[in-house]
Each structure stands twice: as C-alpha cells, then as structure tokens.
Amino acid sequence: MNFLDFKDNLESKLKKKFKFELWELSYTPYSFGSGVIVYRINGKFIKYIFDGKDNILELHISGKHKKYSECKFNFLKSYANLNSFEIKDVENNS
Asked: What's the CA angle centered on 86, arms 22 and 25, to 5 degrees?
C-alpha cells in the first residue's frame, strides 16, 4: 500500500463515522513515498504523517476550534506501517 492508497482507505472509513474536510495533502513519491494528510473533524485537525524511509505512520491531533495556521498538534500515536492504523484512535479523540 502506498500513501495515496492509505488516504483512500482512511477516507472510506471516515465517511462511515464523520463529516470531515480535507485541509492538506502532500505526497512525495520520489522521497520514499512520504506524505502528510490533514483533516478537520468535529472542530479538530487530525494529521497523519508518513515517513516512507522508516515506514512509520504518526497520528497528531490539534485542540478544538483553532485556526489551522495557529494550531499546535499533539502527538497521539505511532504505527509500524500504513496498514496498521486504527480508526478508533480518531473516534476516541475527536
């Protein structure tokens, strides 16, 4: 699975649970397939950062009702690869 496949898989799971907006998408296929994706869900920003070189996915969440340019993200969880993320981590923190 590459980062864009992860995005599609994540969005299909999010659609079942939340109304969300895509705020940022950055994918660099020539840099180990790394990427960043940010969604706004229930007034919070949810950010996934994938390090393609080390094959690590991180989940970060902002506080409620902050402007994107001013919000600070808190690290929530790290996953061993793109296939190991769990949507319940978003459900429990949004």
From this structure: 25
